Structures are given as structure tokens and as C-alpha cells.
């Protein structure tokens, strides 16, 4: 190597060991604006070969006997853009036709230009220039390829980014779609529930109305039968007829009672109730009702708060649930009755608050979803004709709602049924409920004048007769205003008994107006309704329809003393 080469600028390598060949070639080549590096032998040349070599000038005698393999290897390892040019100075001319060994050079070196000695300096110069130009084009190709590679890389990156974003977006869309589907399903469920509740509500209103009228009729029927029994001569045949009619009417009354319960219109006496004690007290009755093939398992923790509930109605409800469970376990099983204190947060069927939960579960045949959805509808029964009225669960549902609680059912075919009756915890103050009048009150003592107000002619007639039979004088009034007219006169009235539901003026409105006229007048409210408006100032004693003469007498005695 004879001269230093500026970094990364093109240079030519010269391998011309004979005489001054190398120096002459170098001075000519430098005129083509390329630095020149003279090499001592082929291995020395291979050592300095790199991309910045413009071309290699070799004289034929320098490689005639050399081992060309390392050079061929280097050439084969060139990058795609590179085809290193050689200028071969020969003594015998270029083409293989005139110089047979030229074929060997062509094969070994690839890109070869031949210059035949003796040559004119301009020939070498022009060959050098042309070769450098060719090499520069290769370098241009290299940077084009490099640019191309960079853009490909960028494209790849953009592609990757795009794919990532598409994936993210797809995931977001999928998520939104899933949410939407869930919302639609939830909405459909809520709508279905709402429809179901509305349906029950309208059935409730209808049954409630019918049952209320029916109750009035039965009040008249039972009242008149009672009077008939007293007035007809003692005759076993007649007695039997009256018994039959009375029993029929009483069965009608208990059916009506259940309908009113479903319609949330039964007269209830809610008071703080110790449910554990209630359930324990029913142990024997439950055992007898479900028979020996079914085991009963009680879970009644101590120290539960009292529930605000109607003792008798809850007993009836529990009995109904137990009988349903029994019917679902014809081959035996286990009935579980459990109590627990629960907290409810604002939900679909309960207000936020503390509750006592009575759970009745069985290991019976369970219900399919269609049966479960209809189970609390009144008159829905899967039992054979004559076996079930289909009013059991509807009654319990109405009772739960009326007590501001809830009935929740869950069931699966083959896996049993679970009924939960949620009842609100009684918060301290026990509902003021008059003690039940004791049996056998002497009803004959006081003869009173009773103002009896009812818009129903039949009831008016039969109740007036019952009262007169008790020895009282009766003034009948068909409406609130008519009753007020009576009170405005100075007629003596000892007691007013009024119906609640009357057109124009309700029994409560009448009572309010009557108190203004006669502040001390005892008033008894006869009603088949429990959903009376809450009026603290008017906690009137009540008489539930249909009533017997004995109940009328007891109430009158407890009011008049
Ligand atoms: N524990 C239960 N296991 C399986 N199915 C039940 C259960 N409780 C109720 N059902 C289903 O719900 C229906 C309605 O019950 P509901 O108590 O209202 O009426 P019922 O039992 O058929 O008649 P009733 O109570 O008047 O004798 C039943 O006919 C039955 O198909
Ligand atoms: Mg039942």
C-alpha cells in the first residue's frame, strides 16, 4: 500500500507488480477523480476490498498463477447491488476468441474490462472513467435499495400499528356490542317482569272488586241465615237445610277471603310477631299436615327481631307453603323451614331496610320456568281438578305485599322449590291493636240506638235485623250525607256503624264529619278492606265483613261498655 485514502470516498486498487506499471496506472487513474491504492499481491488486495472500491486494475501476469478462490469467495459474498468491476491489462487482447484464458478471467472475476498492451493512456483513462461511472451507479442503486428498505420498514411498522389499532378498535366494538346485548336482555327481563306485575295488578283489581261485592252479599246471606235459624220453629230438617246453606256461605267467605288476600284487600292486624315462636307453635300441625314420609328440618335461630306481621295470616301462609311442598314430594323428602334476619338494599320488590325472612324449601319435583312464572297467578294450579284452587301462592303474595314485604320463589325441575317470605322488622312501637274481646261477653245488657250506614240494601236489611234481634233500635242510612242528616237532628244515637267503601263519601270521611257534630259518639267501621288511608287521628275500631251476629255483639259491648 503506498498512499492513504480519504475515508468513504471511492478508490481504485491496483495490482501491477511489473516495473513502473503501478505508478503509471495510478497517475492515469487519479485523473479520473479516484484515489488509488497499489497492492503488493492478491491476498493484500483482498484484505482491503470493500464497498468503497471503485474498481480493481490488475495486470494479467499478477494473477496468472495466483490462487483466485479467495477472490471468487469475496465476490460471491457481495451484496445484491454490488458487482465489483475489474480492469484486466493483458498482452493478448480481451475476448475469449483471441485470448483463450480470458474466459477463465471472465468466469473468476465476472465484471471485467480488458485492455490490451500496448495501450494509449487515454484508453485506460476512458475505461477507468466508464468503470467508475458504472460503480457509482451501483452505489446509487445501493442507496435506492436502502431507501426502499427503510420505507418497507416504515410500511411494516405502519401496518403493525394499523393492525394493532384495528384489533383494539375491534375489541372495543365487541365490548360495546356485548354491553348492548346485555342491556337489551336486561331491559327485556325488566319489561317482562313489569308486564307480569301489571297483569297481576289488574287481575288483583278485578278479583278484589268482585270479592268485595261478594263479601257484602255473603254478609247479608250469613246474617239472614242466622236470623232464620233463630226464628224458624225447631225442626231437624230445616236445621239441616240452614246448616248446609251456612256452610256453603262460609266456604264462599273463605274463598273470598283468599281473593281479598291476593288483591291486598284483606283486613289485617299487623303487630310485632316473634316468627320463631310462631313456627315452633305450628310444629305439630305442620308434621300432621305433611305426613310421616317427609322429614321436617327447622332452623330457628334465637334473638331474631320481631316482624311486623299478622299472626293468623302468616300461620295460614306457612301451612299453604308446607302443603305445596308436600304435594311436590309424593315419594317423601325433606321440608326445611328457616328464619333469618336480612338486610335488603333498594331492589325490584323490596324497599331498603331490615327484614325477617321465612324460608320454606323442599326437595320435591320443582317447577319448570313457565310454571314458576305463573305460580302466583290466582287460579293457576297444576293440580288435578278439585285438588287445588290455585289461590295458595297468590294469597301469600298479596299478604306479603300488603305487609310491605315480598314473596320470592325459586325452583328448578327435579331440584326442589324455595319460597322466601320477607317481612319487615317491627321497629319498636307495637301497632296499637285492641285486644280481642273475650268469648262469652254478656250481650244482653245494654239496649242501644244504632245508626247503621251502608249503601248496600241487602246488608242494611240483614244487619239491621241482626241488631234488632240483639235488642237494639236501628236507624238505617244509605249514605254518609243521609247519616249526617240524622246526626244533625237531636235524635238520640248511641253508636254509629258505618261501611267504609261508599260512593260519594267514605266511612272515614263520614266519621270525621260525625265527630264534629257529636264528639263523643262511638263509631265502628265495617270493612272488607285493609288498604284504608293512614289517618293517625282516626284509628277506628273495625269489624271485618262478613261478620256473625256474635262478632257484632262483642264489638258493640266493648264500645258501649
Ligand atoms: N313447592 C312446590 N313445588 C312444586 N310446584 C309448586 C310448589 N308450590 C307451588 N307449585 C306450583 O304452583 C302452582 C300454584 O300453587 P298454589 O299454592 O298457588 O296453588 P295450588 O297449590 O295448586 O292450589 P291450592 O294452594 O289452592 O291448594 C301449583 O299448582 C304447583 O304447580
Ligand atoms: Mg297451594
CATH topology of the largest domain: Heat Shock Protein 90
Straight-line N-to-C gap: 143 Å
**Which regions have little confidence, pLDDT < 50, spanning 5+ residues?**
1-8, 429-444
Biggest sheet: strand arrangement = 2-1-3-4-5
Name the helicity range: 40-55%
User: How confident overall, as mean pLDDT?
Assistant: 87
Identify the overall geometry. Answer: rod-shaped
Q: In total, how many domains does the architecture comprise?
A: 4
Ligands bound, unique: adenosine-5'-triphosphate, magnesium ion
The biggest sheet amounts to:
5 strands, parallel
- The CATH architecture of the largest domain can be named as 2-Layer Sandwich
How large is the count of helical segments? 16
Name the descriptors.
48% helix, Rossmann fold, single chain, 561 residues, 4 domains, binds adenosine-5'-triphosphate, five-stranded mixed β-sheet, binds magnesium ion
Amino acid at each position: 500500500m503506498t498512499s492513504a485514502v480519504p475515508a468513504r470516498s471511492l478508490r481504485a486498487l491496483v495490482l501491477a507488480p511489473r516495473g513502473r506499471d503501478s505508478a503509471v496506472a495510478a497517475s492515469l487513474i487519479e485523473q479520473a477523480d479516484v484515489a488509488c491504492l497499489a497492492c503488493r499481491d492478491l491476498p493484500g488486495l483482498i484484505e482491503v476490498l470493500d464497498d468503497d472500491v471503485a474498481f480493481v486494475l490488475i495486470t494479467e501476469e499478477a494473477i496468472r498463477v495466483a490462487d483466485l478462490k479467495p477472490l471468487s469467495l469475496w465476490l460471491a459474498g457481495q451484496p445484491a447491488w454490488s458487482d465489483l468491476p475489474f480492469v484486466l491489462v493483458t498482452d493478448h487482447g480481451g475476448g475469449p476468441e483471441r485470448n483463450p484464458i480470458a474466459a477463465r478471467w471472465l468466469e473468476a472475476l465476472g465484471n471485467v474490462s480488458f485492455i490490451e498492451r500496448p495501450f494509449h493512456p487515454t484508453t485506460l483513462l476512458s475505461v477507468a472513467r466508464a468503470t467508475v461511472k458504472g460503480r457509482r451507479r451501483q452505489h446509487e442503486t445501493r442507496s435506492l435499495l436502502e431507501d426502499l428498505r427503510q420505507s418497507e420498514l416504515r410500511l411494516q411498522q405502519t401496518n403493525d400499528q394499523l393492525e394493532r389499532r384495528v384489533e383494539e378498535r375491534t375489541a372495543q366494538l365487541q365490548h360495546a356490542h356485548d354491553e348492548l346485548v346485555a342491556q337489551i336482555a336486561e331491559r327485556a327481563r325488566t319489561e317482562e317482569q313489569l308486564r307480569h306485575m301489571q297483569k297481576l295488578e289488574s287481575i288483583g283489581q278485578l278479583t278484589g272488586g268482585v270479592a268485595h261485592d261478594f263479601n257484602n252479599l255473603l254478609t247479608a246471606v250469613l246474617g239472614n241465615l242466622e236470623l232464620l235459624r233463630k226464628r224458624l220453629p225447631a225442626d231437624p230438617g230445616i236445621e239441616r237445610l240452614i246448616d248446609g246453606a251456612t256452610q256453603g256461605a262460609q266456604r264462599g267467605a273463605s274463598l273470598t277471603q283468599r281473593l281479598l288476600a291476593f288483591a291486598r284487600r284483606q283486613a289485617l292486624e299487623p303487630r310485632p310477631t316473634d316468627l320463631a315462636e310462631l313456627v315452633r307453635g305450628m310444629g305439630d300441625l305442620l308434621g300432621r299436615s305433611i305426613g310421616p314420609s317427609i322429614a321436617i328440618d327447622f332452623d330457628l335461630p334465637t334473638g331474631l327481631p320481631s316482624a311486623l306481621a299478622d299472626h293468623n295470616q302468616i300461620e295460614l301462609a306457612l301451612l299453604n307453603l308446607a302443603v305445596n311442598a308436600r304435594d311436590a314430594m309424593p315419594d317423601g323428602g325433606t321440608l326445611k323451614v328457616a328464619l333469618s334476619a336480612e338486610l335488603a338494599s333498594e331492589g325490584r320488590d323490596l324497599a331498603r331496610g331490615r327484614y325477617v325472612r321465612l324460608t320454606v324449601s323442599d326437595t320435591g319435583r320443582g317447577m319448570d320456568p313457565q310454571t314458576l312464572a305463573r305460580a302466583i297467578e290466582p287460579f293457576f294450579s297444576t293440580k288435578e281438578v278439585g285438588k287445588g284452587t290455585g289461590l295458595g301462592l297468590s294469597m301469600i303474595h298479596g299478604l306479603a305485599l300488603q305487609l310491605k314485604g315480598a314473596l320470592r320463589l325459586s325452583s328448578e325441575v327435579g331440584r326442589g322449590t324455595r319460597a322466601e317470605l320477607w317481612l319487615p322488622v317491627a321497629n319498636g312501637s307495637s301497632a296499637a291493636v285492641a285486644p280481642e274481646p273475650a268469648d262469652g261477653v254478656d250481650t244482653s245488657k245494654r239496649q242501644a240506638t244504632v245508626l247503621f250506614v251502608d249503601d248496600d240494601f241487602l246488608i242494611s236489611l240483614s244487619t239491621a235485623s241482626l241488631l234488632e234481634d240483639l235488642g237494639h233500635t236501628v236507624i238505617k242510612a244509605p249514605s254518609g250525607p243521609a247519616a249526617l242528616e240524622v246526626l244533625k237532628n237531636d235524635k238520640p244515637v248511641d253508636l254509629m256503624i258505618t261501611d267504609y267503601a261508599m260512593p260519594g263519601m267514605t266511612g272515614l270521611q263520614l266519621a270525621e264529619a260525625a265527630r264534629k257534630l257529636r264528639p263523643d259518639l262511638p263509631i265502628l267501621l265495617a270493612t272488607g278492606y285493609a288498604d284504608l288511608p293512614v289517618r293517625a287521628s282516626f284509628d277506628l275500631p273495625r269489624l271485618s265483613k262478613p261478620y256473625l251476629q256474635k262478632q257484632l255483639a262483642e264489638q258493640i259491648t266493648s264500645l258501649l261498655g
